[in-house]
Design brief:
single chain, about 45 residues, three-stranded antiparallel beta sheet
């Protein structure tokens, strides 16, 4: 699972694929942010 950050307002969404549109400001460009939780159960592949 990846964390996506809206380039415009900083809204974050946890989603497998890149979101098409920000649900806060409707911006359409997101940056991927890696999140490492260190566990083996959540499916984050860490
Ligand atoms: Zn936004």
């Amino acid at each position: 699972m990846a964390i996506w950050v809206c380039d415009n307002c900083g809204f974050t969404k946890e989603w497998r694929c890149k979101p098409k549109k920000c649900s806060s400001c409707e911006w359409m460009n997101f940056s991927k942010k890696e999140e490492s939780c260190g566990c083996v159960w959540c499916g984050c592949k860490k």
